[in-house]
């Protein structure tokens, strides 16, 4: 057979089978619809041809051993040429370029989405880790404070309880002591004594050895008959309804006569000094009350007259810390600032406060100084209404303290804590969290975290609402925020607020507590605020609501305008 006849010669059976296999592979790559639009590459189309060449070469080597190598080699060459021609024709007919363009665009979009999701996940994980770290620090600090408190008071309590049980008894009968607690209110039966009851040359300056007990009760609808309502919610027959509520006017009734009164006076005032001397003399001569004053006031009174050598004071901070165990009543002569100063002397429980108005506005000073005899008679005899004013407990956490918290005592404030920009010309940048939830970022002059008693102070000037002092809540008021939608908030009393200066802040921040004790907050530092368990009980002239409304009417002239004349157009 000549070479010219080779193109018209049918392929051998083995060659036909091999070509059929390659042809079937090309048919599998036809542009029929497939579930995933993956375009075939040129390499995937050419590799089958390369495989066929290998198969043909293998067959050729076997046939050459049988004496027919030349014919098989020519046949495999023709088959390879036709296979490559068919592959190129198929590539020319398939729209691979357009499919690749769409796939490239789709893959770029998916990569962009994946990057965005990864950034969001990383940010969320970082925020959660930071929140957990701050929570761990706060819990560690509370544990340390509790341990110090237990160490400070535990030994004293263990040593004194046996003495108290053996040496002193209450004036009230035992049956009254057992029955006055529980559903009737809060009772106080603590009786305390000095460490050295024996004779002492400085006994005239020591604090007294006895503290009066009292009972707190809740009047219902203004009634003072001793009835109390504690069921606020009823679940009767599967329905939730609001039960009849008490008006929550709290009454204090002495169970034993008060023996010790602490005087806190406004400094640098001659009228206050004269009134203080007169009240001290009257209490000693007519009520036989032990009087405790500040060291400054003690020097002033003793310099004026040696008659006042019976007054008592404290010599150091340790005695000042134990004032709450000795004092039955606090009398303040001044304005609201004097009440704030009196509250700052007590880091724990605070005795009832009788505040006489000798200041400017007097939101917390309802008693007139001209009628001090009648007012003190009513308070000493009881019962009288009180307002429990919540305080904020503030902790400063430094960024440098990675494992240990700043070893400072918690700061108690009665009005507000303010975080401002100080002398910096930049906006204050603060991150605020409520428990573990992000609240907002403050960009402005600062932020006020206030009690409801402080709602008529700085918070009011910054646009916050006036709130009744017995409403349980925390005021969240921005100072000149650079946002028209940043309105003040009132949060529930049980939350814990964390205000942090972020690391990318342009400047520092300053925190002040009731207008004093300013502390620098650098980037990374945080301030944690929560309601203190020790409120300030202030005596009421009438009751809590009447005194509050009187204060805003007289102090702020709230909603004062001329009345509309009656002689005009009518419907």
Describe this structure in words.
- The structure is a single chain.
- This protein has 571 residues and is an alpha+beta fold.
- Among the domains are: 260-381, Rossmann fold (3-Layer(aba) Sandwich), CATH 3.40.50.10330; 391-533, Probable inorganic polyphosphate/atp-NAD kinase, domain 2 (Tumour Suppressor Smad4), CATH 2.60.200.30.
- The protein contains twelve helices and 23 strands.
- It has helices spanning 13-28, 42-65, 69-93, 96-167, 174-179, 270-287, 295-304, 317-321, 336-344, 372-381, 458-461, 544-556; strands at 186-188, 214-219, 233-234, 241-242, 249-254, 260-265, 290-293, 329-334, 353-357, 367-368, 384-389, 392-397, 411-413, 416-420, 428-434, 437-450, 473-481, 489-492, 497-500, 509-513, 516-521, 526-531, 536-539.
- Strands 12, 13, 14, 15, 16, 17, 18, 19, 20, 21 and 22 form an eleven-stranded antiparallel beta sheet that branches.
- A hairpin with a 7-residue loop joins strand 17 (473-481) and strand 18.
- Helix 1 (13-28) runs antiparallel to helix 2, helix 1 (13-28) runs parallel beside helix 3 and helix 2 runs antiparallel to helix 3.
